[in-house]
Design a protein that fits this description.
By secondary structure, the chain is mostly beta strands. The chain has helices spanning 2-14, 29-33; strands at residues 23-28, 38-44, 49-58, 61-62, 65-79, 86-101, 108-109, 112-113, 121-138, 143-161, 171-191.
């Protein structure tokens, strides 16, 4: 999976002219802190538009808690002033697969009950759409710091298992509509 993401980012970068401030590579510090390594590439489309493609994955079980997933999130961005600086709006899609379980959460909002993650494992896929607002601070000639928050909808299909390691299904082919945050990012960006 990691090889496929790196190949995708390389290919996207090859189809864009590599002039100054046309291509940026970034990492989401929030995702890194949550043990979900990620890599983004953003390239300029015009003076006010850019395309950001982010990928993340997590294939670990930590202290018996399973939060395995991979996701790809392309986003078209409209910049209010100039590209790669200041305020922007983003319109994104998201697709991925997940395998969550044995996570003690007291959270329940907008039709999603995360308390069920404590005694069940959920394995499946999801797709969705969202919109985001962000701001990018110029730190230097090649470096930016970017904050972005997005809301949206994710439709998922999944199977339910009684524990993190067992394979006996309790329920098959269930569906769920999630409404809420779809993107939270504090990106450290390097522009070429």
């Amino acid at each position: 999976m990691k090889k496929h993401l790196l190949l995708l980012f390389f290919l996207l970068g090859t189809f864009t002219a590599a002039k100054g401030q046309n291509v940026g590579m970034k990492t989401n510090i929030v995702g890194d802190a949550l043990l979900s390594p990620n890599l983004d590439v953003e390239f300029g489309l015009s003076t006010k538009w850019s395309m950001d493609v982010s990928g993340q994955f997590n294939f670990w079980t930590v202290n018996g808690h399973r939060w395995r997933h991979w996701a790809l999130q392309p986003e078209a961005r409209y910049w209010f002033c100039e590209r790669f600086a200041g305020h922007f709006l983003g319109f994104h899609a998201i697709a991925g697969e997940f395998n969550f379980g044995n996570i003690d959460s007291k959270l329940s909002f907008l039709g999603s009950n995360f308390r069920k993650l404590s005694d069940r494992r959920y394995q499946g896929w999801g797709i969705g759409l969202g919109a985001a607002y962000g701001y990018s601070w110029v730190l230097g000639m090649h470096w930016n710091l970017e904050l972005e928050l997005g809301l949206g909808w994710i439709y998922s299909r999944y199977d339910v298992y009684p524990c993190t390691e067992c394979g006996t299904k309790l329920e098959s082919d269930r569906s769920h509509n999630y409404f809420g945050p779809t993107k939270t990012a504090l990106n450290l960006v390097y522009y070429f």
